[in-house]
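Shipment paperwork, digital attachment
Item: protein structure file
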Amino acid sequence: MLNLPPLNYLRSFEAAARTLSFTAAGAELNLTQAAVSGHIRALEQYIGGRLFTRHARSLSLTSLGTAYLPSVSQAMGQIAQATETVRKQRGGRKIVVSCPVSLANSWMASVIARFGCDYGDASVTLHARIWEDDAPDIADIILTSRHEMALTRQDIWLWRDEMVVVCAPSYQVSGAVLNDPAQLTQARLIYNLGRPESWNDILAHYGQIPGKPIQSTQTNAFSNALALASEGYGVAAVPRRMVQSYLDRGLLKAPFGQGFPSPWIMTLSDGSLLTSEPARALHEAIINAARNAAAKAH
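Attachment content:
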């Protein structure tokens, strides 16, 4: 067992020797002047010699204190460095991912689940947001849907959204099952407030004249649009990666088949500043998952 004095004695000595003041050392360590003085007396008794010469209004180090200080300062520095290294390593296992709520409920959830099998000790927090500017400052990895005209050099392009028109399998328009784009002008259209222009683009794509729908419903998230559509309350236009699980389970159908490209791009934040190995691995896993999905689509 190491023959060491209590750490709080050494902290008080190092601070007092550096500032040559018990009062200043106490303020730095959040201790009273009397507590620091008591620590020093106890340390002097422990090592068997005086460390300070007490003057009327000041302190000075004795030869013993002068010889002792460098070793104590170095040891305290090493302890602080080792502690910070361990803290960073522990904290480095925590990863915060921020992405649109509809993506969090579908594609992103599956990516994180697969990642967790390889990094079981990494703690991932998935922050699902509704608006682009709702990303937390503490997020390590951020996925954002941007219009192609708003892309920046820092954005990593994951994919271009392929919009798919979907509805419940039994959804009808004027008593007829929806299977013709011409029926959209009579259908209840579910609008996403973040992309209010989407339905005009979709109607134009299918050769219909855009105009005010007879019936409409608005929501602020694609996940809400999917829920409404699956309940038979209208027709939604949603990015394929967000709707695929609904199609696979038969909760929704795509009455017009394949979708079509939109001007909206899913982007990933730059990963060059990520410091932990798990965070870099998840960043790479997201890119690879996007590439694999694109390859399967083609």
